[in-house]
Write a structure and sequence with these properties.
Blueprint (H helix, E strand, L loop, with lengths): L1 H21 L5 E6 L2 E6 L8 E7 L2 E5 L6 E3 L1 H5 L3 E4 L2 E5 L5 E5 L6 E3 L7 E4 L6 E3 L6 E3 L8 E3 L2
Parallel strand pairs: 1-5, 2-8, 3-9, 8-10, 9-11, 10-12, 11-13
Antiparallel strand pairs: 1-2, 3-4, 4-7, 6-7
């Protein structure tokens, strides 16, 4: 009887492991709705974001080598955003009015040098380095967020 029960359990375990291997790691989400490009680290396992956003030729490049992948919403895709590689995305500057950036946990580095649209940045928990762009950016700090370094750009 033991041999008969172990086969279904073995098959179930192999099936579950196979599904886990196929499912992509969920990391950061990028959405673009009503002109607000929202970048949120929704990974349940904290990662140190190394987010850099730059502007060249009317296109923003959003790059975060600290993430496994950046998942584009259908709204972002419809607005013209496209993945360059798993952790780099481009979006047309004409589609944006502002940024909302929420990296959440760990010791993050956010660099918005050269960004011409205003940003709201909430570094979250961890000792973060937040560097603003050329517009009037807002940096949110809450008690318990550790000691952040902020440069308004």
């Amino acid at each position: 009887m033991e041999g008969t029960l172990s086969k279904p359990w073995t098959l179930a375990a192999v099936a579950l492991l196979g599904l886990a291997a196929i499912a992509p790691a969920r990391a950061a989400d990028l959405d673009l709705t009503a002109g607000v490009l929202a970048y949120r680290d929704l990974n349940p396992v904290p990662v140190a974001n190394l987010l850099g956003i730059s502007l060249a030729g009317g296109t923003y490049t959003i790059d975060d080598p600290g993430e496994t992948t950046i998942v584009l919403s259908s709204n972002a895709q419809s607005a013209g955003c496209a993945a360059v590689d798993p952790n780099t995305v481009t979006c047309p500057a004409t589609a944006l009015a502002s940024f909302l950036i929420e990296p959440r946990f760990e010791h993050d580095m956010i660099v918005l040098s050269g960004v011409t649209h205003p940003a709201v940045v909430n570094g979250g928990d961890g000792t973060d380095t937040l560097i603003g762009g050329l517009a009037a950016d807002t940096f949110i700090w809450n008690p318990g967020d550790d000691n952040d370094v902020v440069d308004g750009g």
